[in-house]
# Entry
Amino acid sequence: MRWLEYAVFLGAVLALARPVGLYVARVFEGKPTPLDPLLRPLERTLFRWLGVRPWEEMTAGAYLGCFLAFSALGTALLFWLLMLQRWLPGGPDDRYLTTAMTPDLAANTALSFSTTTTWQAYGGETTLRYLTQVVGLVSQNFLAGAAGLAVGVAFIRGFARERSATLGNFWVDLVRALLWVLLPLSLAGGLVLVWQGVPLNAAPYTVARTIEGREQVIAQGPVAALELIKNLGTNGGGFFNANGAHPYENPTPLTNFLALLAIAVLPASFPITFGAMVGRPRAGWALLAVMIVLFVAGLAVCDLAERDVPPQLVGLGVSGGNMEGKEVRFGVGGSVLAAVVTSNGATGSYNAMHDSFTPLGVLVPLVNMLLGEVTFGGLGTGLYSLVMVALVGIFMGGLMVGRTPEYLGKTIKPVEAKLIAGYSLLTPLVVMLLTAWAVATGMGRAGLVTNGGSHGFTEILFAYASCMANNGQTMAGLNANSLFYNLTTAVAMAAGRFGLAALALLLAGRFAAQARKPETIGTLPCDTPTFGVLVLGSVVLVGALSFLPALALGPIAEYLHR
# Structure
């Protein structure tokens, strides 16, 4: 049954990838869509109010500057909203807000949502007011998700254009991502969630008595407003601390399935968008095929690790696999599928506690994030992460056969090679240095409240990998609400969002300025199984060289010492 569930999900993603990808391409190429009669007047009104001149395009540097300025403004506004939230009207009652919103936590949270990381060192129901969730977090889920989508489209234009000094207009791409993509899907999906039982109210928390006579506080609120966009915008920050495992966020198997589709479909469609915009559809399908192979491989390893009863429980009559930390509503299959999809999709909307996964089970989401979420990934980020790895493989292959490395007619020259190398090295540099700092200092080790040894090391490594990948999920055995972790995870989030995007945009600008070289007998085809194997091998090789020693100290060591 589990593999039937996996097959149905993957089949649905593949069935939707092509129509969604072609639709996204039409949106950002300015071609007609069915929503134009409704949205074009609204778009023109927004451009007039904002003073945007849509016909004026931007260089890579200007595009990057607008992206950074927009993100900085969103971060600052959300920070002050968080700091002043105690004076906001509406629920929940002050007595339930038991987590203090300190300046370092507010700064971490604000940056977290403006980078689509939604790393949460707090519990939503014990920290935030309803208005903070709706006005602050929901708006950033839309705006930051749309900004990431815009950057991904600009990256594609670098390969689609030739002899061009520009990559488009950031504000135009941002508005179109909001109006044509995120808002319609979120509104439709939100109605489905309300139908399935996800609350959408501003009611006070309910106090009930259990049959043992104890008091139980049942938190609620405008949950449905946050749920769909947190997945669709590759954000993942839950209304409740338990995130997708909470019955109000994710009440049924249908909502679980739809949430995972919302995470995966847009990123999976981006290779199709890429192929359509560069005029090489088969090149897009080749990249999607690599993603699918990596996805199935991760799913197989994680399922194998979680399907059996843990060794310490053998002989106790326990059956059903490793159910520790998993919701019985979803079981091993739904939990494994969610772990692989969320760790691949830059969306930390987990529905099981990864701290309770087996060592090999947690190895899969950890590796997915360390590799830059090249399988599906975030809105645009997964595509350019995979293309960057592909360019590494092409560059190495070109050196081995003595030819100038090219991809889609664009040549990898010395400056381009340095940008690609910088992109490949930034993640291991940031994650490894921050992990080493945390492990070597008392401030870092103080966060390990439940585990030490190799498992504790994995929890720290997992945290920085999650922040660098702008994913946001955690193993939860690490208390990250401290000055040390609020500051260091913020560094990882900023580097993962802005550092990688900057390198990708600068590379796209270099490629857009080039003339496209015609194909010759010596050109490496980019739409064949051989090319797919080259890209796949590059992903494995770059990942192993960068992270195998750290993985050996963490989940691999824990597995061998069981």
Notes: The mean pLDDT is 90. Residues 198 and 248 are 5 Å apart (CA to CA).
